[in-house]
Structure formats: structure tokens, C-alpha cells
Amino acid sequence: MNKKMDLDTFDVYAYITTNHTTDADKGYILVDHLTYHDAAIRFPFRTFFYGIGLTYASGSSFEVGSRQYPMQEGALITIGPGIVSQWKYDSPDVPADTILFRPELLTPLVNTSFWASLPFFLPGGNHVTVLDDDNINKVKGLFQVLKQFGDEPDIVASLTYSLLLLVRKIHEGKEGRQNLALSAADQLVQEFHRLVAQEFLVKKEVAYYASRLHITPKYLSEVLLAQTGRSAKTIIEDTVFLEAKSLLRQTSMNVQEICYYLGYADTSYFTKAFRNRVGMTPLAYRRQ
């Protein structure tokens, strides 16, 4: 393929900054639920930024790769660069606070190794966790202070760093408790999701993931069906076609390039599979 794989034609951060805020880009944006709704981004999109959000009610769902999260009060959301996700709203009136920021915002405060200590930003990480009342108040309090100093980049940088430290502490404590409480089946599901998020571009066979988990494909699908209501094959395909939708709407890659990028050798097979899953051809999806 001679044409460069264009993975940054549409940048959600830049789109919101340009069209839905009045400020110049300072390396961060503080947005609420109405900003997302007004932006009308109704397709899966790849992020080129970091994001932390807190919801204050139910009424929407959030899809990240192979995982689907129903939103509820106190849902802490974390996404990092390269993550493909999609918001699905039942109602626009779902209050939430969010900060989107470029890593450069924290350059004076952190080094490269700091980002490696935040696995909830990485593919396959725990992107949504529900907080208890105490942690809801702590995170909400930081958002309130962030909004008070929203025009002060240096202060916002320090507050964002504090928010990151709090989020890391919450995840470390929660994951430690969960690891003790999770059943073997729950742990299997988590590990399967993590592997799929990291390897779905090159590995789409249920047997491969079963071998990585040291179980049979039949047992893997039985556990996933019981725990999630979806088979291993369905979860893998959900991840692939969420990525495909993002590439169709967010980039200028043609269908053949997207097909090859996703690991398919046959464009007609990919087109047929996409139509069967989505209800329209890739080109029709791009044009809608």
C-alpha cells in the first residue's frame, strides 16, 4: 500500500476546541455533558488525548473496544491516546464533568515513566469504575476547583496532576479489593478483554485466546456467555467492527486500506461481514 495510513484526520479534541468552546487551545478542555451532546459525535472515535470524567446520573452507556459499560452515578471514566470508544445517550440530560488534556500539559510535572503507572489509560485497561460516596465527593471537589481556575493553565496542570494521583490511588485500592473478591470466571473475563484489546488486529481466532488463557475454546465461550451474555467470537468481532467504524468516519483511508489494517486479506469478505454486522456496507456507513 503506497498511501499513508491516515489515523489522525479527525481529532475529537481539536473538533470540540474549535467548534464548541470559546477559548484557544491551552492543552486542556473542561467540558460537561451538554458539550458532548451538542458536538453530536454519534460514531466510535479514536482519542489522541487523555480524558477523565465523572458521571452524576444514569442514562447513557459507554463502549470501549470489547467492553460495554452502562453509566450510573459515580462512574469514573478514563481513556487514553489510541482508545476507540463511543458514547450512546438515552438522554442528553446526564450530568457529568470531564477534562480532556494533552500530555504536554503535565510535561513540567511528570516524566515518561509516570504514564506507565496509569494502566487505566491503556488498551484493555479498566476504563470505567464506580466510586463510593467518599471518592465521588473527592473527585467532584477537584472538578469544582478545576472549573474555578479554568483560565489558569499552570494551576490547571497542578490540579490535573492531583486528579491523576487520586484516580491512580482509587484504582489501586479498588483493584486490590476486587482481585480478592473476583471469582475465577470474572478474572478470566477480565484477562480475555485485555488480550483482545491488545491483539485483535492480528489475532481473531477464539482458539488463540483460549490457548493464551490455558483453557479450551468451548470453555472460554461458555464462561463468557454466562458472565457477559456474549460469546468469545462475538466479543472479538465487536472490537474489530468498532475499530472499523472509527476508521470509516474518522480517517480518509479507503475500504481496502481499512480491510488490510484490520488484518483481513479479502476486501469482499470484510465488506460482507461488515454489512451483516452493521446492516449496511462500509461505504454507506461512511456516507451516512
Automatic annotation (TrEMBL):
Keywords: DNA-binding, Transcription, Transcription regulation
Keyword GTP-binding: no
Domain HTH araC/xylS-type intervals: 186-288
InterPro entries to which the protein is assigned, alphabetical: Homeodomain-like_sf, HTH_AraC, Tscrpt_reg_AraC-type_HTH
Keyword set includes Transmembrane helix: no
GO molecular function: DNA-binding transcription factor activity; sequence-specific DNA binding
Residues annotated as transmembrane: none
Protein name from the UniProt record: Transcriptional regulator, AraC family
